[in-house]
Amino acid sequence: MRKRRAVLAALAAALLLSACGQNKYLPAPATVSTAAAETGLDNASGSGSADKTGSAEDAGQTESGKAAGQTESGEAAGQAEGSETAEGVSGKIFEETIRISDNGYSDTDWDEIAQQTIFHIACSRFQVLNDGYDNLNRALGEYWDGIWEELKASHDANYDDAAEIAGQYPPGEAPYYELTHTGQAIRGDRNVFSFLDVDYSYLGGAHPYTAVHGVNFDTASGKQLSLQDVTADYNGFCQYVKTCLEEMSREEDGPMLFEWYEEDLQKFFSGEYHLEWVMEQDGVTVYFNPYDLASYAEGALEVTVKFTEHPEFFKENYFPAGAGVIKMGSLTIDGVSEYDCFENLSYAG
Q: What is the mean pLDDT of residues 295-308?
């Protein structure tokens, strides 16, 4: 006998989000869907919302179905412009506190007789609570609802195996199957909303697998950004990342790259393979998951290219606040954990 139980995880977060080019790296132009950018959010649950065993309520929604704090104009609130943000540097100042909720999906298969979990799936679901982020909220809803549908399909395809394995162990001692996608907000301002989607999976075998997926949206339109969208010298950026990886591999305890890493790396840069990246407060970080360029034992590889060290690689408007000085704030999760990260970052014009 088994019983499916759905757990609705609610997580409230308050954010102050105040590294030789050749043309071989440039991919062919890609067609990007802009459906999310063309309309505001009326109800983010959409067609990808979960069934009764894993449904989620959109955080802070009013009776009219619009996400709380959204205005009809769709303009981001709390934005101010400054003529001088640092000595000799003109730019814009973004001082709004971007508040997000994480009302995610969760579903657990529980064996009542054995008193143990058989299968667990869960994912985050970010929504911005501030006024005027309709397009971004629609894009976020579509992203997370799509992830949830994929998790449910994978659950259905693997449940019988999970139940069979559970039956081979004494009650309460069986390893259970698990698939989760957990969001980690990285940066949010007038130009970009970036987060990591941490993908954890265990479907039997010697060990689980964890990968990270970088997700970056244009804050105003809700369009998902490519690395080419934010770089002024994409080829130079790619060459720098390659150099950093090679320098890492030559270190005493550095990763041992596959013999064919250069071939695979070019596929990541050209768009044949999906390149994972996020925009942080001080630069762009590129991630290579286990098995991408090295063995599982080497773990994930990452390279951060700093705005201050290589401003020539990036479009200026993606520097925090456009240019000048920016103060980062603190992240509070559910009013319990607070991580202070105040610092001043200066950018030469």
A: 93
